[in-house]
Amino acid sequence: MNLNFKALVVKEVNGKFIREISTKSIDELPEGDVLIKVKYSSLNYKDALSATGNKGITRNYPHTPGIDAAGIVEESSNGLFKKGDEVLVTGYDLGMNTSGGFAEYVRVSAEWVVKFPKGLSLKESMMLGTAGFTAALSVHKLEQTGIEKEGKIVVTGATGGVGSLALALLAKLGYNAAASTRKKDKEDYLKQLGAKLIISSDELDDKSAKPLLNRRWKGAVDTVGGNILSTVIRSLDYRCSVASCGNTLSPELNMTVYPFILRGVNLLGINSAETPMDIRKIIWQKLAGEWKLSILNEITTECSLEELNEKIDLILKGEITGRVLVDLSK
Question: Domain containing 47: what range?
């Protein structure tokens, strides 16, 4: 198939990484069972790291980031999919070392592809994207541990993509959701998402080195890591859990084992990229059905491929609130 298309390409030139919109050929895409014409993608923090040359995310350049893609099957050599099917791909190696969703076409293994659940549009799926999937997986794991609706469930980094959607999901499901943020001007935004309590991140940054703190939370979704995660764990009530899904603050976790062995708390690791397909389908069905959110338009900013550069810079500075949808048709 001889076809050219536009894509964001990151190139390494004399030790510096340059982003530009380039023309690529279908022949340049990696091998795979399914060729997808991408309609929408979304911007995640991992994409921004890939777009700035982080070799821990992407080993080889030039490269097209984008860990999310939703679109229409153009070609398929796998019987599970046919031309015209609406599909989405999030995670796995897409956008990391495999040419990603910041392009008009991707080609991937059929094992990565999710056929669209009824109740969700292509656009809505990328308003959620990896952030929404990660948030929903976090809530799903917390529910499996039996979290209570009476006590407070705290979400850290609550104005970010994962944090915003986790907060909205918890509120929709009837939990007493609290939001932690360092952005004092986002109180109205967090209330709109359903936060019953809004606290400064400073309250969750205990530096006393005490092995245990007052029991404050019945559960948590942590998107930032570091000492804030440590503080949350030390503040959990007996047999309660925190879903850990991010490290924008720090990947380090310095604390004792006392919360685990004296209070029986649980640290739930969330690896959305490698989630097995059976669980992946369950989560997307929930997001299209009983967990479907009505506030996606309010928390999403749209941009074209050409406008994406600016958004990448902003997310690295922590200046993005909510989600960024990339419309490949613009």
Answer: 4-116+299-327
Same domain? 153 vs 27? no
Q: Length of the chain in residues, anyone?
A: 330
Q: Starting at the edge strand that comes first in sequence, how are the strands of the sheet with 152-155 ordered?
A: 197-200, 176-181, 152-155, 217-222, 236-244, 266-269
Q: Give a yes or no: residue 61 inside a domain.
A: yes
Structure tokens that stand for 320 in this block: 């993005």
Global pTM reads 0.95
State pLDDT tens for residues 252-307.
999 999 999 999 999 999 999 999 999 999 999 999 999 999 999 999 999 999 99
**CA–CA distance, 124 with 38 (Å, rounded to integer):** 14
Q: Does residue 197 contact residue 179 with C-beta atoms inside 8 Å?
A: yes
* Secondary structure E strands in 77-170: 86-90, 105-108, 114-115, 152-155
Residue showing tokens 């709109």: 192
β-strands 152-155, 16-25 pairing: unpaired
- Which distant-in-sequence residues (6+ apart) come within 8 Å of 118 by Cβ? 288
